[in-house]
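Reviewer 2 asked us to include a model.

Predict the structure of this chain.
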Amino acid sequence: MTHKNLVTYNSMISVLAKNARIRDARQLFDQMSLRNLVSWNTMIAGYLHNNMVEEASELFDVMPERDNFSWALMITCYTRKGKLEKARELLELVPDKLDTACWNAMIAGYAKKGQFNDAKKVFEQMPAKDLVSYNSMLAGYTQNGKMHLALQFFESMTERNVVSWNLMVAGYVKSGDLSSAWQLFEKIPNPNAVSWVTMLCGLAKYGKMAEARELFDRMPSKNVVSWNAMIATYVQDLQVDEAVKLFKKMPHKDSVSWTTIINGYIRVGKLDEARQVYNQMPCKDITAQTALMSGLIQNGRIDEADQMFSRIGAHDVVCWNSMIAGYSRSGRMDEALNLFRQMPIKNSVSWNTMISGYAQAGQMDRATEIFQAMREKNIVSWNSLIAGFLQNNLYLDALKSLVMMGKEGKKPDQSTFACTLS
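Predicted model (structure tokens):
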């Protein structure tokens, strides 16, 4: 482009950040001779998308000006990372107390962590509540399986929208109470596509395939999401032929439709058919490419998977992790480490895969090095290390790790106890 304006730069920063090229996004941001508020918010949103809270916080601190969206973004950054005290401190500093977005982000953060009393305090302190505020509280109850409290809160709501109803249906589905989910679904005044798909997926999840198909056929209008949900249901039940029949009837297919069929063939071991579908796909995206690459890895065709990985233009974190896992399972740890070092953004899966890979290869010194280099260790990281010591007959090291785990405030789970008892 010969002439670039602020909109061009902001759009490009957003695209780069959303495709895991956050360093390129920041480089472009730093190159801008003139920035507006949107530029700053877009860059912070990019860090939020890539779960990089410290970087977002540093940028937020040096912003020349902020609007309500800036404050809401930063509060969301902290709540997603579990830094609720920091988020609450920030909420107290928000200039516009009537802006509901910041309050709603805080409620959602507390509710997600199951801190319902704190969420309710914030909810009650709000100078002005909107429907999103009520739904944020409701989502906290339903997503944490507190359906008795959810129902009480739902019934006390003076106003509800289809989101409220869908949250309740999804909550009952998640808790395995299909009867209550169905009763509520039948009462929704104007169910939307999400309502139908939520109920359909619930029936499928618990193996009620005939009921799921009957519901699908009853739908007054089917969008691509509905078709994809039914196809995914057949794939989940390993009825790939039925999935393919439905796929061929679809009036409009998107990348999810194609990728679901590719995954279906891979799940039943039909890699050649998966490749044929991939070759017919009009626009191949990273998800489809990663799906086929994973299929090659599962079938031990690592070199072919590596060739495919090399042809992918922009790798996301799932793509990187799939290829690293493939090398690790094949004992090719030098190649796994080489890829791991090249990764622009590593998540906990990346680190844990490397720990497990070195453990399986009998290289516990390297596994320990990777573990110690981790900034944030989760329960899977500790279990991977302890299981590695167990696999390599280093029993005292496994027990010492359990003690260290306790000192760092991590609570063992069943897998941890199984390893240490062994």
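The radius of gyration is 24 Å. The mean pLDDT is 90. We have added this to the supplementary material.
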